[in-house]
Amino acid sequence: KKLIGTEDKHKPLSDQKLCQLMGEQGCTLSRRTVAKYREADAFYENRSLAAMPEYTAEADGNGSYVKDLDKFIVDRAALRTALLKWKTGLDLALGRPAVNDTVISGGWFLPYLGYPQVDREEAAASAELMADNLVRIRDAAAEYGGQYCYVAVPNQYVYGAEAYPSYMDSRFQKQHLNVELLSAALAERGVDFLDVGAEVEALGRPEGFMSKVDHHYTMEGAFLTYRLLMDKLASMTGEELLILGEEDVAFETLPNTYLGSRARKLMGMVSSEEKLQLLWPKEEVPFARWDNGAEDLPRVYSMPDSAEEYATYGVYMGGDIAHTTIDTNRQELPSILVYGDSFTNALECILYLSFDRMDALDLRHYNEMSLTDYIREAQPDYVVCVRDYDALLLLSENGAGEDLIP
Which of 9, 73, 133, 334 has a 20 to 30 Å separation from 231 between CA atoms? Predict the structure, then answer.
């Protein structure tokens, strides 16, 4: 209403006046648009919708208010999802090589990556800078006797690189260059590093490790990552840790259609046989859970309400949460802090089983204090960072606040 204005620009229009100006069809669409005002997320696009901008004289003067308002209106336009589905269906019917920046090939739903240039010197400089930052985080744990390990996990399009058409880039070489340069820089500085990709390759690249419809690993992949990580931590300290084997857990397959992040980009219009799996310990471990300081239900899975609903990666730990704590009240066991982004979610569903207390930080959302300050205050026995290959040389989410050297 405020967009059209009246003689008094601060006085909103009545519904009747609005309909007179826009016509009945326009009025109907506008009401549907306004009804979407409170929506925060675009489900199929798996992203947050643009927020309503706050009007200020400065934002009006530099044009940012109008730009942000345009984004807000576009994100909440009536029939937006229906139109996106229509366009997606048309592109699929036309057989376009990439639909909504997604490549469907060999049973994989992969991102279209373009053809980026690889600058080894620039990558090497980024690796050195990243390694210097990780030394500061490692040293914060070492001050009280804690252990630090950086874990690199292959991302989906690297694992499924062979499925890309020959004329498309999979970034396989670029991502492995990231691993090569960062691992070398960390080795020079004595920082423990675990390349899950190399370990998985040595095991023959098990097919069930990586999801074909989501950019994360599967629960099987998360469990293998857990085993590799626990073995690494045990070798670092020489201590005997509680490490669960296949005989200690049971997998459950949900009957729901799994709408992974790549399938969501396709608006759920391309089917896949892949299902989401859960992992349960055969011996129950009671625990208490807190999210962002508030006590939550003692559960690690956020289950769909029915078998007809979609299951998403958000089933694991309830999605992306800034700060989660799980306390199993087994004081004879060590504590652990795991940080990173959404790649930790599935891992968290398993990791707490081996520790007295597990804290998890998603550094895309956590901003209460710097990572090094958090480590010094909480003093976990183990500090672990989990990042995928594509994020290894990005300063964002590899540390927080003043931990980053500009």
Answer: 133
The model's pTM is 0.84
**Mapping DSSP to helix (H, G, I), strand (E, B) and coil, where does residue 243 land?**
coil
Q: Over the stretch 275-316, which tens digit does the pLDDT of each residue have?
A: 999 999 999 999 999 999 999 999 999 999 999 999 999 999
190-203 residue pLDDT tens:
999 999 999 999 99
Confidence of residue 23 (pLDDT cuts 50, 70, 90): low
Distance, CA of 15 to CA of 344 (rounded, Å): 48
Phi-psi region of 256 (alpha: psi -120 to 50; beta: other; left: phi over 0): beta
CA 313 – CA 120 distance, rounded (Å): 34
Helix axes 172-189, 120-142, angle to 10 degrees: 40
152: left (phi > 0), else alpha (psi -120 to 50), else beta?
beta
Q: CB-based burial of residue 115 (10 Å sphere; 0-12 exposed, 13-18 middle, 19+ buried)?
A: exposed
Task: Report the alpha-carbon distance of residue 242 to residue 189 in Å, rounded.
Answer: 29
Q: Name the one residue in this structure whose structure tokens are 């960062």.
A: 182
Nearest 10 degrees: Cα torsion 258, 262, 268, 274:
-30
pLDDT in tens, 85-103: 888 888 899 999 999 999 9
Rg from Cα positions in the chain: 24
Residue 186 · residue 134 · CB < 8 Å: yes
Contacts of 257 (CB under 8 A, 6+ apart): 268, 271, 310, 311
Question: Is 11 exposed, middle or buried, given 0-12, 13-18 or 19+ CB atoms closer than 10 A?
Answer: exposed
